[in-house]
Design goal:
By secondary structure, the chain is α/β, with parallel strands linked by helices. 26% of the residues lie in helices and 20% in strands. It has eight helices and ten strands. Strands 7-6-5-8-10-9 form a six-stranded mixed beta sheet. Strands 1-2 form a two-stranded antiparallel sheet. Strands 3-4 form a two-stranded antiparallel sheet. α1 crosses α8. The relative contact order is 0.15.
Length: 261
């Protein structure tokens, strides 16, 4: 059973002392966002179930953005059928344009926030998450819990600072927790991740998330990684079925599955 699961219970649901409830059924999941500890680890861990959106939270500075983790999170989202969003924090400390340019061909929606009382950025994120079940993922210190505390004023999620020597954040959230959003929907806060293994992901399932490219994989050789000379996606693009930039961007994130984070 994972956070986000819908379950059936029997017993006394009052929550009073000495009461007993039994979980008797786990309902089918609409989505399951998974990761492995490392790329050679076959054991999948479900981060959260039944989410609609995955907010990939990235600080533009302190700590600096790491595209490897962003790409890996995108692969996991595409594989799970979960819509990804980029949430770029601390935009007052760094320029977002170069980072956004890398993901524009993929059509990834992005929201920017600044430190302090950035009402405009916070409102745009709140409106986007309204009525949805969303999960926030990212390195420690990028501002996930700070954002949750803004979106859910009584959440009281612990926040921390970035280590000056290492440039990495310290784990402040130690558990996955789902919180109801004011006005409707849920937000799931997760502990900061150091790695995001993708041993469980088949590249074809990632390509299938792109409607303009997925039609080309039928002509690929068996076991095609979609980043090799015999890949039929090159023919698909050359005959005008999809922009070259889309295939180049897709291949970059597929390479991240086998590269350092």
């Amino acid at each position: 059973v994972a956070v986000g699961d819908q379950v059936r219970l029997v017993g006394d649901l009052s929550g009073k002392p000495d009461t007993l409830v039994r979980l008797v059924q786990l309902d089918p999941r609409s989505t399951a966002l998974r990761r492995t500890a490392d790329d050679d680890d076959p054991y999948e861990r479900i981060i959260v179930a039944n989410v609609d959106l995955m907010g990939i939270v990235v600080a533009l500075a302190d700590p600096p953005p790491r595209m490897g983790l962003i790409d890996r999170c995108l692969i996991a989202a595409f594989d799970a059928g979960v819509e990804p969003l980029l949430i770029l924090t601390k935009s007052d400390l760094g320029d977002a344009q170069d980072l956004l340019a890398n993901y524009r061909p993929l059509g990834i929606e992005a929201h920017l926030t600044e430190r302090g009382s950035d009402v405009t950025g916070q409102r745009s994120i709140a409106e986007r998450l309204h009525g949805k079940t969303s999960v926030l993922v990212g390195h420690s210190g990028v501002g996930k819990s700070t954002l949750v505390n803004v979106l859910v004023p009584d959440a009281d999620r612990a926040t921390g600072k970035v280590n000056v020597s290492t440039g990495r954040g310290r784990h402040t959230s130690t558990s996955v927790q789902a919180l109801p959003l004011p006005g409707g929907g849920w937000i799931v806060d997760t502990p900061g991740v150091r790695s995001f293994g993708l041993a469980h992901v088949d590249p074809s399932r990632v390509v299938s998330a792109f409607s303009d490219l997925s039609g080309g994989i039928d002509g690929c050789p068996r076991g095609c990684t979609h980043d090799e000379p015999e890949c039929n996606l090159d023919v698909w693009v050359a005959t005008g079925n999809a922009p070259t930039e889309r295939l180049e961007s897709l291949r970059r994130i597929l390479r991240a599955q086998h590269s350092e984070q």
